[in-house]
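One-letter codes give the sequence; each number marks local geometry. A record appears below:


***
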Amino acid sequence: MMKVWGTNLTAITWAHAVNSQQLLDEVLTETSGIDFIEADIVLGKLNGDGEDMPIMAHPPANVSDLTLADFLYQIINFNRDHEDQKKGVKLDFKSIEVFEGSLDILDVNIPNPTTYPVWINADILSGPVEQNRTVPVDADRFFAGCMRYKQAVLSIGWTTNWGADFRDGEYTQQQCDDMLETLSGNNVLSTGQAITFPVRAGIAANSEEQLHRLVAAVNETNESTLTIWSSAGDYVDVDKLRKLIFSFGLDRVYLDVQEELASQLNLDNPGNGASTFKSLFGFSFVSLCFWALSSWMQQL
């Protein structure tokens, strides 16, 4: 049975960078209160010894006490034994080499059909703001491997450059068009596979129109959502981000941010007499309007 969280995806709780056995033990309990486990995968050594293999670590670290295979095996066992407390998992692959080196492990450890959410994540395009320090994961090779896991959600985003001193920056229309072209060119839009776009909170707040156009276009063939995330210390225009979230609707936005920012957003109180239903309806209508206007202008 697939765990159902209801229509408010922003209420889902996350554990970040679960890249060690101790951290995994802490979240795989009946009392952790965690719905989704996010972890990073690199090529490195188990306990510093032996050959390189897919391990749980975030660059620049390349040593861990937990391999990808053991990580997934323990989640499978926990979810099998805890029907009402299953954990979703988001696998963040930091390079194309580690992703391709993990395919045999994923073949064995991603159930088909799956009874809990499995997300395969990678930053496949260079993004804002003038980001050129992080090399994106090769999109063509990434999607070729992902074709083996139609039961998984594709979590695909842009590399970003943001922080406490940033104010101006957005996911440009060109960057969103590039994402749509990449999806189309790799036949992802012909599979109907679920997609979520991870977008950085401070940048997404400035990008409402472009993101609506992207999601509306993708939703013609594939179910898609946004996953809003942030790093500690990021500047975020809270009012603009809140407006963005309600324009899409609480059933279309995952919220993976620090507790302080989540509290400031005050999503339990839509304000101005707005109801959750109104915000959910608004997503479809506003996105469709943005997409229709964009399509019409391109024909002029």
